[in-house]
Amino acid sequence: xxxxxxxxxxxxSRPESRRNGHEPAWLKEFRHTAFQWVSDRGxxxxxxxxxxxxxxxxxxxxxxEPAKPDPSRxxxxxxxxxxxxxxxxxxLVFVNGHFTPNCSSLKKLPQGAKVESLAAALVEEGExxxxxxxxxxxxQTHAFTALNxxxxxxxxxxxxxxxxxxxxxxxxxxxxxxxxxxTAGPVVSHPRSLLLAGTGxxxxxxxxxxxxxxxxxxxxxxxxxxxxxxxxxxxxxxQNEMETAFHIxxxxxxQERDTRFMTxxxxxxxxxxxxxxxxxxxxxxxxxxxxxxxxPRNRQHxxxxxxxxxxxxxxxxxxxxxxxxxxxGRGVFDGRVVVRHGAMKTxxxxxxxxxxxxxxxxxxxRPQLExxxxxxxxxxxxxxxxxxxxxxxxxxxxxxPEPAARGLLTYAFVGEMLELINLGPLRSHVEKLVAxxxxxxxVAVAA
Amino acid sequence: MMLQIRNLRASVGDKEIxxxxxxxxxxxxxxxxxxxxxxxxxxxxxxxxxxxxYDVTGEVLYEGRDLLAMSPEQRAVEGxxxxxxxxxxxxxxxxxYFLRTALNMMRKQRGLEELDAMDFLALVxxxxxxxxxxxSFMNRAVxxxxxxxxxxxxxxxxxxxxxxxxxxxxxxDSGLDIDALRVVASGVNALRNKERAxxxxxxxxxxxxxxxxxxxxxxxNGRIVRSGDKNLALELEKHGYADxxxxxxxxxxxxxxxxx
Lengths: 447, 260
What we know:
Chain A has 447 residues and is an alpha/beta fold. Chain A contains eleven helices and 21 strands. In chain A, the strands form two sheets. In chain A, strands 1, 4, 5, 7, 8, 10, 12, 14, 16, 18 and 20 form an eleven-stranded mixed sheet that branches. In chain A, strands 3-2-6-9-11-13-15-17-19-21 form a ten-stranded mixed sheet, covered by helices on one side.
């Protein structure tokens, strides 16, 4: 292991050793194992297939300190509305990974449902969470997942009981902020969220990652979603951290029989972000939809690895990722679909499209299919190109100035992704963010 | 004079397409530009609206101002419009939204108030009748999946909504059956008035039965070789372009090169 990497681990190992006795023994031991895993194997390099396009060197170069609860960071509700959108439902706010109750709003929940901080759930539910909290630290583990396992202290916990529907969206807001009295230098946080959807339950969950100006931050998040038979979950993620921030995340999804899962990710922020989605279709008849939009500019690097594992037969997965890359930005889509032996009647499609707006913009697209079963229907495709100059000229010839014409066509390219956001208040919030980003403000918002 | 073209030359690489073209168009007039394939008709249309694929020299005065110095969007704002021969498809941009954006951007640049959604819809509905277009076209993406005839009607609808002073129609008749041709032509005729000039580019005389021109010009090898009234078009219909090709051939570079 390189010297810098072990320095980061050393800094992170201090709070672990300090952590006091209220944690159950299984958790302490699990943290120790996870930490040992990173110490032994180190951080991903270019030799790791799934990190082919993303170098973690810039992260390891920063002297991150573990985040502590910071009462001086009290955001007004208006500020949170502005940064994260007001979705009108339940909202949990986390500052540097720690639950901040007075920024949060909890509504009355159906009988038996729980939406709270993971730290609180650990106290209440204890060992019943062991199986879940140790699970993503398995076959696909890399150093950051293991670090999350070793260091995570808080995050969201959602439990939806059997045959229960939570109508209001559950909004999880993660704010990264460093450079205050409590956290003077760069900080790392490890939010860990667990969403358990009981048999026949339904809910909509939104994760929003935002930041405040100040020192560099690293968010190393793991979100685990478990869908029991027939559950239907709609999940959204908006990553709009500061453009100086680092963001590494894993969304780990496990689907039982006849479940439906939809996730839609929008990546706007961070200097380097990697949002990985790993779905295991382990019950027959399960279906999963993965959508993603990423808009790197300047020197942003936005990586979107996905793994869909078709284990059970008759499952469906559809994937659509679109990138618009400007400046010296780089967008990556690295999607694997594995159809295991016995996963007959699998229906899978995978599409990635990239639009390059500048000479130095870069897109890497790697759709991969690994099929070990017969009688399956799998398609994949990828296209990368530039704006149609004929269309630009057509719009200009109708009196639309060139920058607006380019903005309009770019917005048209991403419009499809925005329409796929079913949750109205979130869609309008994202539309505004995207319109601002594509700097065609007045044209696009009017649409 | 609305449009004065003097010694207009346009080339792509080594290939000169317009080779010293002169033309005068007054407000209220309809001029037909005819000529064989490859004579430079479409190039003239594209140069006038500012397509940048050509090296252009010469002078084009539009209402006394240097048209060639203006950007394509500026020309549109000043009232120059081209009904394209091959209108481009723009997936993801709604036809109605596109038209409203175009109209309002022009109005803004002209210092006029923008039309709100209701007023705009009323205007479009009225103008759609001119080209007998169904309202369902408005909810589709610009030209996407439109048939050839539908695309041409959409061009004339844009012309009707944007109300240009100088409208250029580049082979609007190509690919139209006789019924569609009649609809498009009657739409265009409804837009004729004393302030508006029309430049109708066509290979065939057929369209000119419906849109009757004040002047007819024949282009060959990049310049106007004959001009006359509407009877010239009928004459061409009878004798074809063989004669005019002969006239122009004297000037072709190969002919010049062959001289002692």
